[in-house]
Amino acid sequence: MALRKLLVLGLLLLVCISKVSSDHEIEMEEDEDLQLPNDKLPIVREGNRRLMSEIDCGGLCGSRCSVHSRPNLCKRACGTCCVRCKCVPPGTSGNREFCGACYTDMTTHGNKTKCP
Hints:
Elements: H1 2-34, E1 43-45, E2 50-52, H2 57-64, H3 71-85, H4 101-105
Antiparallel strand pairs: 1-2
């Protein structure tokens, strides 16, 4: 009698598992139909969830650091800030407020401003 109950429970469990796995496959097929192509994925910016277009950090930082006394150091710091904040201020210096608190509040370990 106990063996019969165990067999029935095992079959019931097997049916449930097969039903769940088939539902998962159907959902995955539906998700694939709803996805955007990889080249048109939106970029979400921080907590405010604004959609941002991707920017060319290398080019923007190259022009920002073109007249800097230490251009390699400037480009490295600018690149980090650009990737994190998705923004590079216009011009070769100043205008840091243009990119908001993310850019102006980022500091080094020595509490100096990080972003050029």
